[in-house]
Design goal:
Layout: H1 3-12, E1 14-21, E2 24-27, E3 30-33, E4 35-39, E5 42-47, E6 53-60, E7 65-68, E8 70-75, H2 88-97, E9 100-105, H3 116-126, E10 133-139, H4 148-151, E11 157-163, H5 176-184, E12 190-193, H6 197-210, H7 216-219, H8 222-239, E13 243-245, H9 251-257, E14 264-268, H10 270-274, H11 279-284, H12 297-308, E15 314-315, H13 324-327, H14 344-353, H15 359-374, E16 390-400, E17 419-429, E18 432-436, E19 439-440
Helix pairs in contact: 5-8, 9-12
The structure holds (4S)-2,6-dioxohexahydropyrimidine-4-carboxylic acid.
Length: about 475
Amino acid sequence: MTDADEHRQRQERRHADLLVHGATVLTPSGAERIDVACSAGRIVALGRLHTAWSADVTLNASGLHVLPGVIDSQVHFREPGLTHKEDLETGTRGAVLGGVTAVFEMPNTNPLTLSAGDLQSKLDAARERAWCDYAFYIGGSAANAENLSTLENLPGCAGVKVFMGSSFGDLLADDEAVLRRILRHGWRRMAVHAEDESRLRERKAIVDASGDVREHPLWRDVPSALMATKRIVRLAGETGRRLHVLHVSTAEEMAFLADHKRRVSVEVTPHHLTLSAPECYERLGSLAQMNPPVRERHHQDALWWAIRKGVVDVLGSDHAPHTLEEKGKPYPQSPSGMTGVQTLLPIMLDHVHAGRLSLQRLVDLTSSGPARIFGIEGKGRIALGYDADLTLVDLCARRTIRNDWITSRSGWTPYDGITVTGWPVHTVVRGHTVVRDEVLTDTQARGECLRFLEARPAGGAGDAPV
Ligand code: DOR
């Protein structure tokens, strides 16, 4: 190199806030050995950069894979009202330690999230306490149906969530007329917990009599899920609304949903893909109790089939913490729910290691999928101009998941003692290295609320005041 060349190179040297060097990067074009430069929270350059770029922080990431930040579109962080189980700080801390950079939080808190004021309280509580980015669902109910087209467009709102069957908390919309009103008042994709309330009520006597948690999938059986899913898909078709069916758990629903994919998106959870009945109930008792239930192996096989065939759009953890004391109540008084936000990625990387899905498909389910179906601005891919949300993983690291790693207030995971291959190492949220070498290193929580391309200015025809 001549002096002139060197001088020119020095002149051209570019400076970034963060340079991720030496890793394999999952871009929309596939896995590439390139560097990622990030400035002011965005991805500003991709390529062989390290000779031409300097940076405030360089992450030497050789041997690691860089995924677009993982988005968990279903978590229950329990604030306000239930913060002995979880809060926004502990929940999002678990998220980033597990490689998750953004979450959608659910409305069955206390109070429920039903009004603009309820949403604003959550946004206020998240400011400077959330370690990752976030949005909050508004619950759809008889009480607020006419306000939903305004509410769903408020900043920080992930959309509307409806519980067709009661699970935990008082949020329920099972009446067909109410469901129609909810579906008619809004435009964004509506998320639904599909279990048929009247069938659940009829069948509750089964478990009241037996007190046997192994009968959880018998109480909340396949028809309970299938009836509700068919009904809401029919109503959404009648009202022209797009739908997102959360935590699909049965082979029968998957076969049905495969024929309704043009307007309906589908979520599965890591626990339905990993645990199976009756083994999980025998080993974990009510710690495996979840709604909809973890079911027999042939249902799990159908969920994997649906992943392979593209029927499934996203993975959500349905992180639903309850304390061990609460879970220790005799079944069925024990509440349904388990932690999951921190283990979503380790469990799924272990499935990648076992050859059940490709890394590219995992990225589709945890990053580009949620960004696509929910219209999240600037997220979900490693591309110029996108937010610098990066999840750096070691595909070969073997770790044993332990309860004491779990930051949740509830302090436990159904995967305690399970060894997995594949682990999140560094988590970068909008250019900030929040987790470095598996340790929370950032000193200030800087999560911001997500923006949605789907949200429209409030005040459309038919809106009632909120
Ligand atoms: O098992 C569950 N628990 N399923 C849900 O959908 C809600 C959740 C909770 O909030 O505890």
